[in-house]
Task: inverse folding
């Protein structure tokens, strides 16, 4: 189980005019729990701090306060094993693949580093890893720009999964993909969660996906938690006005009352 | 009168030793001033290539043929100087990837104000700032002053996307080409952008070319839906709901939208993949994935007829074949 208590992150930026700095409390005392083997969705306003939480959990950003405890121990990244156990899939997959490296090598590199695999053994692992996300081994010989968006996304996910993580943090992993490719990737997440018990923290603004995928949800606004609970409960009876507004604004949701009509 | 007229537009990408990819093939389209059209279809079917052709911002390894007439003038035949007058002023563009389209070394202030100065020759500092802040407010940004002063990396994904929209609208273009303009936005902000676009359509008679994979967004903003598959238009019609659509591919796109009324469930996919067209074949490109495919589909390539490119289209109103 992952337990986050009072997490804080403040960005300080130089003012353009005049002296001093502006302080931006990107996350301001956020506490939540992610149960082992469950899928937790984080939704909320644009700029509410979702990506910042993910970056703190992945050790990319250092929090200014609060605690992150994973199965009883402080969440740390000081050993290879600990680094491998928590994997992060960035929103921008193009930026997270080296354009001059073949797909096969991009996947092999961390496997070699973390598990010390070599030659034939390494090759088998890479093939298995690609296959697990439905990509043919021969596609491994391509460069990133030669793949479609959906294939590229699956490669990044495959690389994260090759580390056998216990916790996967995925920041808007499907938002720029069409519904069919989205479904392929979401089905894979479902399968890994069911069959391997991987815990997933899934950041999205798509409330349809949350309903179909996640067990629990937290709703974020202005760096604070507005509401949390089981997905079915929150959707049936949202307590915070902001959650209600979110649910009623889903495009095409007939039940929604505040939808903007017509064109 | 039509503001945009596209005649036999084709775009090829050179793939080095691996031949040529036909990304767009023989697209014909007329758009009237003030009309809104949505372009939908799966990843890789040519939507962004189409958007880039409209303002001739195509990749270096591309080759375009045909005509793209804006107000009667062929964009594809224009010099860079002539194109400058089109881009931004006549046709504003919001590109798919905000992180890659914003310049990382310039602040939001510099990027918006420079666009206004370049095209509209406004140089007064106070006026420039007023305009910039107003644009940011209109796109639903809350801390306008902070975002105005910020550099792109200091903004969240959705904030970057709205800055793109503000830049695209900064010179009051007659045409707005918006490639996935709301993918990084939560539904409330998305609703604000939708309301803004609707207002501009009404007040300024804006012509909107919306590219999206979100069918609900498309239906909400546009009366006319253009469905693309493997570089071709396969349906071009007024569609209000699934039952209006005739092409089996359009129906399939509707069918796989996750159901909000159901708790955790399996996701549905359209089996198979969009073919990458390197050779032109005498068959329907969708037939391997199509529930209605019949004999004719493997014998010849269907032409557009009554707004649909299909030998066995659905008739309006009937949901299942
Ligand atoms: N490096 C930074 N410097 C200054 N401010 C930052 C920085 N990174 C993020 N912020 C600010 O912190 C706040 C939270 O940003 P974050 O990226 O976590 O939001 P988000 O919830 O992921 O939003 P979105 O849905 O738009 O991606 C935003 O107001 C953003 O402008
Ligand atoms: N510069 C390029 N060189 C080679 N192939 C390219 C290039 N740009 C795009 N393609 C290919 O052309 C096809 C159409 O690409 P395009 O970007 O227009 O698709 P799209 O419909 O916008 O997809 P998405 O929904 O993923 O954005 C794809 O198969 C893509 O891989
Ligand atoms: Mg984010
Ligand atoms: Mg695109």
Result:
């Amino acid at each position: 189980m992952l337990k986050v208590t009072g997490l804080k992150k403040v960005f300080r930026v130089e003012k353009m005019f005049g002296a001093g700095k502006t302080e931006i409390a990107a996350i301001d005392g956020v506490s939540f729990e992610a149960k082992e083997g469950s899928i937790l969705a984080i939704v909320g306003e644009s700029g509410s701090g979702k990506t910042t939480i993910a970056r703190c959990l992945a050790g990319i950003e250092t929090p200014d306060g609060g605690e992150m405890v994973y199965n009883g121990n402080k969440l740390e990244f000081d050993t290879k094993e600990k680094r491998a156990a928590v994997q992060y899939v960035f929103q921008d997959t193009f930026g997270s693949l080296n354009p001059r490296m073949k797909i096969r090598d991009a996947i092999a590199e961390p496997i070699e580093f973390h598990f010390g695999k070599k030659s034939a053994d390494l090759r088998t692992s890479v093939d298995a890893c690609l296959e697990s996300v439905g990509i043919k081994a021969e596609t491994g010989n391509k460069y990133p720009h030669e793949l479609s968006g959906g294939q590229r996304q699956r490669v990044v996910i495959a690389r994260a999964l090759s580390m056998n993580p216990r916790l996967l943090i995925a920041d808007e992993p499907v938002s720029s993909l069409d519904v069919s490719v989205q479904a392929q990737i979401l089905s894979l997440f479902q399968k890994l969660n069911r069959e391997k018990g991987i815990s997933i923290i899934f950041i999205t603004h798509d409330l349809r996906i949350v309903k179909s995928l996640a067990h629990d949800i937290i709703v974020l606004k202005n760096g604070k938690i507005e509401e949390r609970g089981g997905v079915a409960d929150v959707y049936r009876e949202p307590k915070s006005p902001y959650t209600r507004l979110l649910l009623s604004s889903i495009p095409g949701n007939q039940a929604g009352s505040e939808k903007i009509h017509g064109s | 009168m039509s503001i945009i007229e596209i005649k036999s537009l084709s775009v090829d990408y050179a793939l080095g030793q691996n031949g040529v990819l036909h990304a767009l093939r023989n697209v014909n389209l007329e758009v009237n001033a003030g009309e809104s059209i949505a372009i939908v279809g799966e990843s890789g079917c040519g939507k962004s290539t189409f958007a880039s052709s409209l303002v001739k911002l195509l990749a270096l390894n591309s080759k375009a043929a045909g005509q793209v007439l804006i107000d009667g003038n062929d964009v594809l035949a224009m010099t860079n100087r002539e194109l400058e007058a089109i881009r931004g002023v006549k046709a504003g563009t919001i590109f798919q990837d905000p992180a890659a389209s914003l310049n990382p070394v310039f602040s939001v202030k510099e990027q918006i104000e420079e666009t206004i100065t370049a095209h509209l020759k406004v140089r007064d500092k106070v006026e420039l700032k007023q305009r910039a802040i107003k644009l940011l407010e209109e796109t639903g940004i809350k801390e306008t002053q902070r975002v105005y002063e910020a550099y792109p990396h200091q903004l969240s994904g959705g904030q970057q996307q709205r800055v793109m929209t503000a830049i695209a609208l900064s010179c009051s273009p007659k045409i707005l080409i918006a490639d996935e303009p709301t993918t990084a936005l939560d539904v409330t902000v998305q609703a604000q952008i939708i309301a803004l676009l609707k207002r501009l359509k009404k007040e300024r008679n804006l012509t909107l070319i919306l590219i999206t994979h979100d069918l609900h967004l498309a239906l909400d903003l546009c009366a006319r839906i253009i469905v693309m598959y493997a570089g071709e238009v396969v349906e071009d019609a007024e569609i209000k709901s699934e039952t209006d659509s005739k092409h089996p591919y359009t129906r399939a796109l509707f069918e796989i939208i996750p159901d909000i009324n159901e708790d955790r469930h399996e996701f549905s996919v359209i089996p198979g993949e969009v073919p990458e067209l390197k050779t032109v074949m005498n068959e329907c490109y969708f037939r391997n994935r199509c529930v209605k495919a019949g004999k004719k589909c493997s014998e010849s390539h269907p032409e557009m007829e009554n707004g649909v490119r299909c030998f066995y289209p659905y008739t309006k109103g009937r949901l299942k074949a």
Summary: The two ends of chain B are 38 Å apart (CA to CA).
